[in-house]
Design goal:
11 strands, globular, alpha/beta, 30% strand, 196 residues, 9-stranded mixed β-sheet, 3 helices
């Protein structure tokens, strides 16, 4: 069971510091073209990260939002939620407002605040990979690689994770490696937060 916790100013400052500490590595090692925030928890860290991963003289890295829901509200006895079993897509990408019409050939940073079960992150990567593959086929751009990486502030089970097909891969925190290059998964994403 997951209990909602309201954060204090000191906790918010810690989130800010984690994003700031991670920014140079993300910018230099991954060089994202787009951030995708998983709503609602990914919105704040994505916005904070964007402040720190901007190169002087260049435009801000755009942020798109996707809405995925895995939690089922138990409701009657307070604000306690329990993870569900099915991911519900409530919002998806709208690239029409950006200078990119698809994700082919881009470096995409997926941002969320916490990894409780890995289910929503795996769903996001899998569905985005499907979108990229469909665009590659439609446009005849089969040689272009799209890379995905994940930034989360906190992993509930105390270890960083990787998306390697359906097999989780543990890795040290403070490492930034792409989650996949269109289905060819690598060692795992970047995790900035605490261990437990």
């Amino acid at each position: 069971m997951v209990e909602k916790v309201y954060i204090t100013y000191n906790q918010a400052r810690q989130v800010h510091k984690l994003c700031q500490a991670s920014a140079d590595r993300i910018l230099n090692d991954f060089q994202p073209n787009l951030m995708i925030a998983i709503g609602g928890g990914g919105y704040v860290p994505a916005r904070i990260l964007r402040s720190f991963i901007k190169r002087p003289g260049s435009a801000n890295i755009p942020i798109q939002a996707i809405g995925l829901s895995l939690y089922e509200n138990l409701g009657k006895n307070g604000p306690v939620e329990e993870p569900g079993t099915k991911v519900t897509r409530t919002q998806w990408l709208d690239l029409s407002s950006l200078e990119m019409s698809n994700l082919v050939g881009k470096n995409i940073l997926i941002v969320d605040e916490v990894d409780d079960t890995r289910t929503t992150l795996e769903y996001a990567v899998r569905e985005l990979e499907k979108d990229v593959e469909a665009a590659r086929q439609k446009l005849g751009r089969g040689d272009e690689k799209t890379r995905f990486s994940v930034f989360v502030l906190h992993v509930s089970d105390g270890s960083a994770f990787g998306y390697n097909g359906s097999t989780p891969v543990r890795q040290q925190q403070d490492e930034l490696t792409p989650v996949s290059e269109q289905g060819q998964s690598e060692e795992g994403p970047f995790t900035a937060g605490d261990d437990g």
